Structures are given as structure tokens and as C-alpha cells.
User: Fold Extracellular metalloproteinase from Ganoderma boninense.
Amino acid sequence: MVSRLINSPCDSEQTFGVSGVDHPLSVRDQFNLKDAAVSYIQSRLNVSGDAVDLRKVFTNDVTQHAFVRQQINGVPVANAVANVAFNKANKVVSFGSSFVTPSKVPSTTPSISVDEAIAKAERALSGQFNEHPPTVEFVVKKDGSLALTHVVQIQNAKTGAWFEAFVDAHSGELIQVTDFVAKASYRVLPITKETVPEGLEVLTDPQNTAASPFGWHSDGTTSTTTTEGNNAIAFKGSETNTTTESSDGLNFIFAQDPGQDPTTQENIDAARTNAFYVVNTMHDISYLYGFTEAGFNFQQNNFDKGGEGNDRVTISVQDSDGTDNADFTTPPDGQSGQMRMFLWDLTSPERDGALENDIVVHENTHGISNRMTGGGTGRCLQTNEAAGMGEGWSDAMAEWTEQKNATIVDYVIGKYVANNPAGIRSHPYSTDVALELTLAAIGEVWANILHNVYAALVGAHGFSDTAHTDPTTSGGNTVFMHLFMDAFTLQPCNPTFPNARDAWIQADANRYGGENYCRLWTAFASRGLGIYAVNHKNNFDTPAGC
Assistant:
């Protein structure tokens, strides 16, 4: 197994509250997002326009975003990036940068061929080049120097590994590796339920046409009667092995029998149907909260609404290459996200992860967090801290989908597959201040913090029963999901805990005028992420006035 190998230059981040700050082109009558972003970054970092490679822009209902890379001698620097956001008044509200000032720049003419680099990467990563077009990019090394690299993608179909390899174009050394893998009517487990014992139901036309205008079985040109559509395809073994409707009219009614082996045909069909339903439901929910075509989502057809298409989620149900787990691979916008769901052998008969909604939602959320952080590259949750927080965001999303009212109870994930009421985490997520998470994984700590943020927002604003389909409601669960999604686009590449916290505070300033400023700070501080928290040292202080 290859460890994540990521060199991340020191990031700087700043947020500017409700009012924001001016940029050098503020005096112009007409606002141009691209021009304003480049001008601000030039001024802020004291670099020339040639050094700023504008990569992606997108706009949501409250902010406008630009994502750039540093460029030196016409070559982009893979891990020297910046992001800037503007509010509705065209003021800068957040800025993050990892631009560098290298002491020496190597020749931009490679000494070794891309074929040699591919061979090196294939040997080192035990995989094969996947034919995605290679690029030439600089990489900032740990000592601050630059390396010119061939950038190639390497996959291993057997293990599910999918890497982006940066091979020094002069020495042939493997410098850096991006690991893309994060570890009509349907009889399914409704999204608000967690496990099979709660009961499958028949849901009719659960799609949201605001997010999926042609439903879940058509891309606007081609329609299917299988678990295949514009947003996702669910299969076993190969993409040709999908589930076909049980009767005319897109009816997918399969009776899952927990007393039988999960590999019986009826159980396979139930699993594929449920996974297809959950991933499509999450596509539609996340779309309403900002994960759109322009926001780097997963769709075959983007309907000329921005972003890159041809990248629906592929869902391998009962994947044969693992047990007792699941994973999601997030390559850049324009390449399909890959979900692998495994069987769990802790019981007899075995249990199917595709039939535990919290696990499917957890994996799908890796795609959301990896795409929305950093502007669709899939490269910006690679440090240990950022990747760990990715696990926390995924657990928090799973919890959010299952909330049914304003009552805040402890949350446990993975109870069904583990056959254990304690689930698969070391602790439940709780508002109990006596619960100590000092030895918990990074993701558990972050998910527990977000559990407390959720409790604070629902406690203040109540609960909306329609938050899954209506993002305009005022319930605390709706507010939480807006801030959850907005913050991804505001935080810098490879964020730390304080970076992510600040992005939530700024997201509230952008969308709600800072209405929840003290509420958020109090929740974060209650779990050690107060205003003076730094370098993984707890602080419980809130800003003056809170």
C-alpha cells in the first residue's frame, strides 16, 4: 500500500466578515469576477499577472469564487494555489493562498520523456497508466525548492487504487502522490433511515427535478430502465451488470431478505437499487445547497450549466476486492467518482454495506468535500489533518440526512454492518461535555464538533421538515447545511481545523449577515476550537461580546 505523499506549502488564510474589503478594481462601475480576482491576488501577493493562472470560477446565490494556481515561466505550480471569494456587494470576503517564492527554478524542458515517467510511476505505485492526458507542472518540495514534473494518473483495477503521480522530469524521482481514494418507484431504505431493520419502503418518484431535470434514468438524450442514469450507475462486477426494473414504469421493487446470503439475486437487486437511490438522493440534496454543475458535481450531462461532464458516480456493489469497508475515489471534475461498497463478514450471513444508508452517504460525501474544496481538483484534502477532517464531514452529512425532528440525540454510525449498537467509531457523537475525544481519530473529533454546531443551530432556529427538498426554509438544519456546503468553497486547499472553523464563520457572514456569529463561536469553543486554538492545542475562549 502506498502512503499519501503530499507536499503542502504553508497556507495563509483570511476572512473579512459581513462587510468584506475592497479590491484594486473596486472603483470600476462594472464588476468582472475574473479580473477582480486576478487583480486582488496580484496586489495581495505582489506578483505579476503572468504568475496567476486562473483555473476555475463559479457563482452561487450568495458568493462568487475564483480558484487560481501560481504559474512560473508559463508552467503551473500544482501545489501553490489560491482562492478568493466575493460577496453580493463585490467585496472580498475570504482569501487563501499557498503561493511561494522559490530560490531557484529548474529548466522547463524535461530531461526524461513522459513515457519514462509513466513507467516509473507504474512500478512505484503497482498500477497502470489510465490514459488520462499527462501534464507538465512544477511541484513545491518540502524544502521549498521547485521540481518540474510529469503528472500522470495510475490505477490498479484490482485494488481500486487511483493515484496522481508527480515524477521529476529531470531526475525521474517520484516527488508527490495524490491519492484520489477516501477510504421512479423503488423499494429502498428512505434517506432518513439508517439501517435495514428500520424497514424498506416503496418510494414513488423521489427525484427532485430542480436538480435532476430528466429524472434519475435519463441524461436528456438516452433513457434507461436500469440502475443507470445521469448522476450514477449501480452495478456488480462490471458496469453492464446493473439491475433492471422489476416491472414496466421504472418500478424497482425487490424484497431484501436478511436471512439469506447477500449474493442471492433478489438481495443483489435490492442492494443495487438502494445504493442507486441514495446516491441520486444525495445528488439532488447537495445540488440544492450548491453542489451544482458549475460547482464541480458528478453528472454525465451538465446541460450547458458549467463544469465538466461525463463524470457520474459509478457504484460497485458487493465489490469483490475488499470486506468490512467502503471507499470513494474523487478524481478532478470531468472524471467519474468511483464508489466501492463491500460486504461485511462480522455476521452470518454477511451484511451488505450498500444497505446501510449512513455508509453510502458517508462515502458519497467524500466526493462532495473533495470536489468543492479547492475548485474541483480532487487535490485539496491530502494532508493528514485535511483528509481526517474529510472523514468528519462525511459522518456529519450522514447524521444530517437522518435527523427527523429538533430532538438532539447521540449519533452512531455503522450499527447494522458491525452488528453492534456502538457502531464503527470509538465514541458516539454527543453534546455531552463529559465525553472526551482526546484519543479519537481526526475525523471523529471534527464530526463531534459539527454535531455540537448542528445542535446549537437547531436549538436556536428549530427544525425544518422539508430541508431535503427546500433550501429556503429557516430551520436550524437548513442553516447548518448551507454553512456546511458554503464553507467548502471558502476554506483554503488542505485546511486545518482553524481554517475550516473560520470558513464556517465567514459562510454565516455571507449568507446570514453574521446572525449566528456568537452561536457558532460558542459551539466551536465548547469543543476546544476557540479563538486561540492553534497547532492542535485546545482553547475554549470566544470573541469579546460572545
Q: What stands out?
A: The chain has ten helices and 21 strands.
